[in-house]
Amino acid sequence: MDRPTALVPLHYVALGARGPEDVVADPQGRVLTGVADGRILRVHHLGDPRTALVEVLAETGGRPLGLELLPDGALLVCDAERGLLRVGTDDGTVRVLVDSLAGERLRFCSNAVALPDGTVYVTVSSRRYPLSRWIGDIVEHTGTGRLLRLAPDGGEPDVVLDGLQFANGLAPSADGSFLVIAETGSCRLTRYRLTGPRAGRAEPFAELPGMPDNLWREGPDGPVWVALASPRVPPLDLLHRTPPAVRRTAARAAVRAPYRPSGTVGVVAVDDRGRTVHHLVRRHSGFRMVTSVCAAGDHLVLGSLQEPGVAVCARPAAG
């Protein structure tokens, strides 16, 4: 798809808390999210802002980012401060599954997916910068992102992929033969093969018109929705080609400067061949830094690292 179409906003739902960084829809069309004060929320009736209801499910004691719904209704939660958690959505229990690797704390656990056999894959965005200084990793282009694998019986995870540029969203293919990984720092999606003769290898999957954040797969037959946290920034692309010392100096300045998100927001949907099914853009948006998107009924729901609520938009016709 060469030209984007309009991302049409319908209404806004305030959550009473800032930073619904990831949004995921459950089978009943409710949307779950984690916010900056550590709470996990479930939002009902998003189609009508007059009847929308926000329910508190749990408190992680940290900063929840990526969420993954499990078949039993529990949540895998990637917490930037506490690691990978399992959260009971019925009783609010929080259990730490992984908080370190080889003696090193998981500084920036970002996203997780659970496969049918119980294996869990987790992205770590950066080994150098915490969430509060994420812009430093994007500018320095450290390539310290990782993909970890946690066996069904638990234990310490394995590093299966290293050197990723701000590893972020994760989504499985429809047939379970590969994972799609968002590399925010390189404006691309990467495919990691799980089966076949190329199992264990990574390869380019899709180049994107912006910086991808969270991914959300819409069922086995649907596309993978990609939130674009920012359009491409040509000066940043040029900076990434400079020597490491130059990038480190620029990163030190970036983490001290106030960050102003772009007024252009967008989402993309791709199929399992990496082809763009939808590319939706809104310019001069009041809702900024879109870090997640999911489909709930006839709507797209957008989350943000910075906003105090979620945006509900029109869902495009099938592509």
UniProtKB/TrEMBL annotation:
Similarity field: Belongs to the strictosidine synthase family.
Organism: Streptomyces cinerochromogenes
Domain Strictosidine synthase conserved region: 117-195
Keyword entries, A-Z: Glycoprotein, Phosphoprotein
Stored InterPro entries: 6-blade_b-propeller_TolB-like (IPR011042), Strictosidine_synth_cons-reg (IPR018119)
Official protein name in the record: SMP-30/gluconolactonase/LRE family protein
Ribosomal protein as UniProt keyword: no
Domain of life where this protein originates: Bacteria
Family annotation (PANTHER family): ADIPOCYTE PLASMA MEMBRANE-ASSOCIATED PROTEIN HEMOMUCIN-RELATED, STRICTOSIDINE SYNTHASE-RELATED
UniProt entry tagged with the keyword Acyltransferase: no
